[in-house]
Structure formats: structure tokens, C-alpha cells
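Problem statement: downstream parser choked on a complex file, so we are re-checking the raw output for the D-mannonic acid run. The parser issue turned out to be on our end (a line-ending mismatch), but while we're here, posting the original submission so the record is complete.
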Amino acid sequence: MDNRIASVETLLTCPDRNYLLVKVTTEAGVVGYGDATLNGRELAVKTVLDEYTAPLLRGCDSGRIEDIWQMLFRHTYWRGGPVLQTAMAGVDMALWDLLGKRTGLPVYQLLGGKSRDRIKTYYHVHGDTSEALIARAHEAVKAGAQVLRYSFSTKNPFHPESGRSYTQPHQDIELNERFEVKGQAGGTMADTETQIARWETEPYLEELPDITAALRHAVGPHIGLIHDIHSRCTPIQAVRAAKELEPCHLLFLEDPIEPLNREALELVRAASATPLATGELFNTMDQLLPLLQRRLIDYIRLDISHFGGITPLRKAAYVAEACGVKTAFHGPGDISPLAHAAQFHLDLHVPNFGVQETLRFDPRLSEVFEWHTVTEDGYLSFEEQPGLGVAVDEAAAAAFPYRKAFIPGHRDEGGAVHDW
Ligand code: CS2
Ligand code: MG
């Protein structure tokens, strides 16, 4: 069989939101798919893949996955960054998928086999008020969830009469009984880059401890609770939040501060026993390593599509294992089912798996991606197939053309830029 790469192509599709897919085909006609979606900057990644990566890979042995990764990372000289790492991730996932299809083995088997039988997952629950949040949490627990990531809206104290509130990003999609989307996932796509929402952290910090305590009381001691601060605190605000949330026994507090401000995590760590997680914005190992070495976090939140694919994510998980840190890979709606599937294979394999973020996908996605997962009692399993186990319908993908969309920006009440 001729395993040399004949072509590397990109497919941009928008069944509900934009996904950039990479398709690698060998001379023998075997095909692998990967995800290279960078929310709001899809065309930048597509240009890298079409103009630079595809010509470079033509004729390479598709089985030399590590070697190709090293070449793409180091021969460009300009290493890292979200655009280049996302492009590499798409190729890397496609090569693992292809190897699985060639050998007839699922990717987790190629990685060294299972360390567990099923994957503990968490979903998002959001409420505009504490009551709405608790009602939603009860629904999720009734449906079998054992871990919840919660978010809420904060009343705007400066305009109480206007009903305006500060809202956190969330991905709580409500479906009706016919499995149609009732409400769109919150705040993850905007039509223009100038669409701005307001945010102030202090009023939110006033509400956070009470809402969390009420939620903990409502769901009882055995449901895992996760909260994502989404980089919106200064270091000392994060210390306050972590301390005040201590009695609520969170599974973890995510991105308490700007994740690239690594030094300041030490302050939060020293002040409280609330477990910490970060990493969804990291692209390379050097960003993560100091946090592992200094035991500043409990969970790595790396995202397979932005960290360069299966090859480096596996290494990061092994290094985390040596440091007693678990995985909680980033699983938002802005990476495609191919990326989620790739992470599921790693989740099954790595010994130090913690929990996996996932979401109720918009039903329109099933027109483009065919994959079979089952979630029972909050644990996910998937049907065994060679490779990643996700079939892509290219004709359906082409029928949903790209629509330019952006991550909405935030500014404070004074008009200054704020982290999203
Ligand atoms: C969030 C993401 O899932 C999470 O933890 O931080 O939804 C994030 O907002 C998006 O990936 C941004 O595109
Ligand atoms: Mg996050």
C-alpha cells in the first residue's frame, strides 16, 4: 500500500457555527480527517494549511506522525501561537485517523490502549438568576449528570431599572422534546467584531459565593461543581474568590486569572485549597510546564485543536501524570466533533484522566458528522471504529457555507477593554 501523502485539503463548513476540517489522502486512497478550527480566525488557519502546509506534506510518509509534527513545528522557525498550532493540530489528528483506518484500529488502541472503560463528562448549566440556575442543575442531575459547570448572569447594580446584566460565556443549549435548539449557546459568536458587551468583575464577585453555596446546597455534596471565571479577575480578586468558594468544595475553579499571567497563580494557590485548572489558551508545552513543575494547578485544560493535536497533548498528559495533575481537556462547541472524538480517545487512554467537558451539540451537526456516543449516568462511551470514529459527509459540509463570525468583545462601564 502506498502510504505517501497525495493531498492535504481544507473544508470550511458552518452547520451551526464555523468548523475548519483537514482532509489528508494517501496515494492508496485512504483518507483521514482532523479539526483545525480557531474560533473567529478560521481563515487565517486555512491560509496556513492551503498555502504552506499542504505543499510541504505532499509525498511524505503518512505514518511518520511524530516526524511530521516535528517538521511542521521546527522547520517553520516561527514556533507556536494559536494559528500555526491549530493548523498543525488538524494535520496531526487527520494522520492518527488515517493510521487507524489503515490498521483497522481505533486511535486509543494505537496510543497504548484503554486505562478505563468510560469517560466522566460535564455539561454546562446556566441561569440568568440563581433560581433558574438551580432549576437547570436539577434537570441535568435528573438526566444523570454527576458533574456540572455552572454560570450565571450578574445583575447590573448601576442600572437596576434597565434589567441589564453581566453575563458569562456559557454553552448551555436547551433542546425541546423534538431535539430542536430552543436557545442558542450564550455569547460565543457575534456577527461583527465591534459587537461589545459590558462587564464589571466586582458585582459578579459579590454574587459568586452565595450563588455557589445555594447551588451546592441544592444538588448535595456528591455532584462535582466546576466554575469558569474566564480570566476576568485580577490576581487578588481571584484569591478572594478561591477563598470564599472553599466551603463549596468545587471540583475546580477554571482560569481564575488571565492564563498567560502564570506567576500570579502562585498567589491564588498559596491562599486556598480550591482546586485550580487552566490551559485552554495554551499552544505549547513551555506555557504549561512551569505550572506543572510548581504544582500550581490540579487539572490541565488544554485544547487539542489549539495545542497542536494528539501528539503533543499526549505528551502533556504524561508530564502532568508525573506531577500528580489530572486532565480536563477543553471541549467547547467551537471545536468540531472530530476534535472532541480525538480527546475522547486520549481520555480513555491516559492514566491521569480527570473529567471531560462536553456539550449538547446542535442537531444540525449530525448532517455533516456521523458519530455514535452514549452518555449514561454522566459517563460517555462511543462506538468502536477504526481511527477517530467520526464520518464526514463532504457534500453536506459544502451545503453549509462559511459565515464570518467573531468572539464578542467586552468593555467595562468606563469603556476600557476587558477580558472576555
Ligand atoms: C470556555 C470556552 O469551555 C470553556 O471553558 O472557556 O467556551 C471558550 O469561551 C470558548 O472556547 C471560546 O471560543
Ligand atoms: Mg474555559
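For whoever reads this later: The first helix runs from residue 42 to 57.
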